[in-house]
Amino acid sequence: MKSIIEKLNKIFDSHAKLGIMSILMVNEWVNFKTFKEMLQLTDGNLASHMSALEKHQFVEVRKQFVGRRPQTTYNATDIGRKAFKDHLDALEELLKNR
Amino acid sequence: MVMNNRNEQLETLQEIRSLMERSSRFISLSGLSGVAAGIFALIGAGFVYVYLDTLPFEHKRLYYITAQTANKWGMNYIQFFLLDAIAVLAGAISMGIFFTTRRARRKGQTIWDSTAQRLLINLAIPLVSGGVFCLALLYHGQIGLIAPATLIFYGLSLVNASKYTLSDIRYLGFLEIILGSAAMFSPGYGLEIWAIGFGILHIVYGIIMYYKYD
């Protein structure tokens, strides 16, 4: 049983990070505002979770101008997708094995 | 400790599922927009019968002759049909926007976000193609096939768009395609079948959706 628990990714202990990845699993290049509204987080809070995911190379960032406004969008990387899937599989396994 | 976590883990899974749903589908669509669209369609079809001085399911052999020689209210039949179609479309779209914005505001949901844009684009692709196709039918004088074609293309639009909103509209799409296909082979009954597809089906579906989600 301990081995399964070890498979759970520590990063996803955070609900915010799990939420960000959930959205990115079904959407490509999502902007900052969408995350804020979906997850009900403050700018600073969201930014720090995002940069942690970026550091682990779970998400990639793109900055570009839409008209005159700069817009930051995020996308899940292959590493991020795999980590999220593995985490879900471990959760599922954990629930089944009771 | 492990037992305590079970509920928490189930909750987490549900949260993930809900986030995936909410972020990828436009869920503010109000059932009342369907009802309103259906009512406009029935009124539009009603005007055609008044214009042609006929009744539904009557004088089928004379239908096209009556249509092509009709000249009422200062309009020939092409002008009248176009105006009628545009009025129905404008009425349905504006009421659709009205009820959907009202519902979204009540539930505190965002209206114009990426899910709405994605829904509209995917709805528009088959719909615009269908519009061009119908204009071509009009151009070539194949008036009898226009009503069935609108049903088929609208049905395809719904099936295509169902991935981006409440999945129920997929089945409405199938029904419209079946009705349109049947109408292709029932000359003279295009308008009746059109009224069933755009009028009655929309009202019934709208009511079901209203009670299911609103």
Describe what you observe in this structure.
- The complex is a heterodimer of chains A (98) and B (214).
- Chain A has 98 residues and is α+β, with helices and mostly antiparallel strands.
- Chain A is built from five helices and three strands.
- Chain A has a three-stranded antiparallel β-sheet.
- In chain A, a hairpin with a 2-residue loop joins strand 2 and strand 3 (69-76).
- The mean pLDDT of chain A is 86.
- Chain B is mainly alpha-helical and 214 residues long.
- In chain B, strand 1 (71-72) and strand 2 form a beta hairpin.
- Chain B is elongated and about 75 Å long.
- The model of chain B has no long low-confidence stretch (mean pLDDT 85).
Number of strands of chain A: 3
Assembly type of the chains comes to heterodimer
Helix content of chain A: 55-70%
Helix content of chain B: over 70%
> Quick check: average pLDDT of chain B?
85
| Secondary-structure content class of chain A | alpha+beta
Strand order of the largest sheet of chain B: 1-2
Summed up, the helix count of chain A is 5
Gyration radius from CA atoms of chain A, angstroms: 15 Å
What is the overall silhouette of chain A? Answer: elongated
| Element order of chain A: H for helix, E for strand | HHEHHEEH
Taking pLDDT < 50 over at least 5 consecutive residues as the criterion, the unreliable ranges of chain A are none
Largest sheet of chain B: 2 strands, antiparallel
Stretches with pLDDT under 50, minimum 5 residues of chain B = none
Number of strands of chain B: 2
